[in-house]
Amino acid sequence: MTSSSGASRRQVLAVAAAAATAPLIAGAPARAAESKGPKTWDLTVLGTSDTHGNVYNWDYYKDAEFDDSKHNDVGVAKLATLVNQIRAERTGKATLVLDAGDTIQGTPLATYYAKQEPITTTGETHPMANAMNVLRYDAVTLGNHEFNYGLPLLAQWIGQLGFPALAANAINEATGKPAFLPYVIKKVALGGYDSPTIKVGILGLTNPGVAIWDKANVEGKLVFADMIATAAKWVPVMRERGADLVIISAHGGDSGTSSYGPELPNENPVALIAEQVPGIDAILFGHAHNEVAQKFVTNTATGAQVLTSEPSKWGQRLTRMDFTIAKVNGRWQVVSKSATMLNTNTVVEDPAVLAAVRGQHAKTVGYVNQVVAQSSVELSAAESRYKDTPILDFINHVQTEVVTTALAGTAYAGLPVLSIAAPFSRTAVFPQGDVRIRDVAGLYVFDNTLEAVVLSGAEVKAYLEYSAKYFVTLPVGAAVDPNTISDPAVPDYNYDVISGLDYDIDISKPVGQRITRLVLPGTDTPVAADAQFVIAVNNYRRSGGGNFPGIVKTQVYNQQQEIRQLLIDWAQAKGVIDPTDFFVPNWKLVREGVPVF
């Protein structure tokens, strides 16, 4: 509802209630009673978010149709079928389609057209532009992952879209002005006998975490303002410029917490925006990958109920928001609003979307199925969260080797090189025999690059203590279940293991007191607090992602090499992946010195 709608909305509801309860006059037609109520129209807003490069219902890592334990489906092609069904159902009525961001990263399809055949070089239309243009979105908000491949590729993709891309809080550092379109106001015909129009304002908010996560791409070019303050700035402007209804499309969750420290604005402020900024009717949001069908938040200034909804991830769900509106004293008012969630596993893929991306999908499938090496045994990541495994050591070995070679002959050549890796995937496997690009991509699912910094022994210990908060506390004697051993509030990608030192994690002890043994490899010599180490680490973590202590430092190595490609190159050069070449068990979970596994 509008910011000034308190009394007006009560008037609408009072008139509607009176119409519903008024007694019928004998002999009068029923429509006479109905005519006493205000005439209403309806508007439907459909929302997607975090599609992450999914067009086909396809798992490129398994080379098979996507499936999971809940039998979800994925992809814009599935979303398009649902959208088209609703559009057909609502023929002659108003329907808008919005997306809340994280679109051009997340699958080998998206990576291929950013890295192997980048659209900035070929001029080819990005597969996500092809797919989304067929679906005919009305607007998309930029997510943080839109910035992963640099501003030139982002600009090229935006230019290929047949609809606006929004990010009000991404500011050009040189000019102080919005770097992208902040909002649009769409004049929408409501249909019906006289088909009145309503002006719908759509404000896009991207995530401030871009300043950390993609620092290399945006530093000195863009700054990212607080999402709450930005909404407070632009919502009144949109109202003044005629917006009858205001919807925010926000790439941030609603938890009110951040994965990074307090130096940046809140990462997940959607509930706070709804609560603190007057004049908002609804918020479509994303980023957290949660399914929030319908949640109302009370605005503290007006008492208005702000409708919020988040449609999961990867095209698994479609948000449907329905608004009933009426004109009272010449102004549009919201009479009612609600949201429901639709599951894409109930429909087939839209053939027009499939056709638009078929060639690019086929090229990607061919690429990821190239054999890069032979594995002497099967290597699985299933236990990598709580056991030292060869497949995670493979990542650390390659990272260590690359950094060691690069630093030869420099002032850092004499320092031991440690390496950090996280168990990104619980399902990654290198099969015995042929290992393909998709197997390596399934192990290292993010487009991170390799960097290195110098840490002291004390900083390494503090880093490991922070990482060890991943585990729940399990006293000696308590049952241990690998499925529940980790704190659900800490994602797998924010648990790191380090190679190059030997250490124990005592999960019976409180967080912050768990690294009970940290020694030089193969010895009982404790790591000195002032010892110096080079740490091979990915750019996400080194930039502050996950808020790990001590790691945000000037790099001693940064050649912008993608870690996934380094793993592929190493495997191709060796021809054989044999754990005897790189597996060095160096850490374990314990309770009072007794191994847990």
Automatic annotation (TrEMBL):
Pfam families noted in UniProt: 5_nucleotid_C (PF02872), Metallophos (PF00149)
Task: List the signal peptide residues.
Answer: 1-32
InterPro entries registered for this protein in UniProt: 5'-Nucleotdase_C, 5'-Nucleotdase_C_sf, 5'-Nucleotdase_CS, 5_nucleotidase/apyrase, Calcineurin-like_PHP, CpdB_N, Metallo-depent_PP-like, TAT_signal
- Occurrences of domain Calcineurin-like phosphoesterase (ranges): 44-290
Q: Which residues form the 5'-Nucleotidase C-terminal domain?
A: 371-549
Q: Does the keyword Zinc-finger apply?
A: no
The protein's location, in the record's own words, is: Cell envelope
UniProt keywords (A-Z) are: Hydrolase, Metal-binding, Multifunctional enzyme, Nucleotide-binding, Signal
Q: Which cofactor does it need?
A: a divalent metal cation
Say which family it is in: Belongs to the 5'-nucleotidase family.
Kindly provide the name given to this protein in its UniProt entry. Answer: 5'-nucleotidase C-terminal domain-containing protein
Organism name: Micromonospora sicca
Top-level taxon of origin: Bacteria
Reactions this protein catalyses: a nucleoside 2',3'-cyclic phosphate + H2O = a nucleoside 3'-phosphate + H(+); a ribonucleoside 3'-phosphate + H2O = a ribonucleoside + phosphate
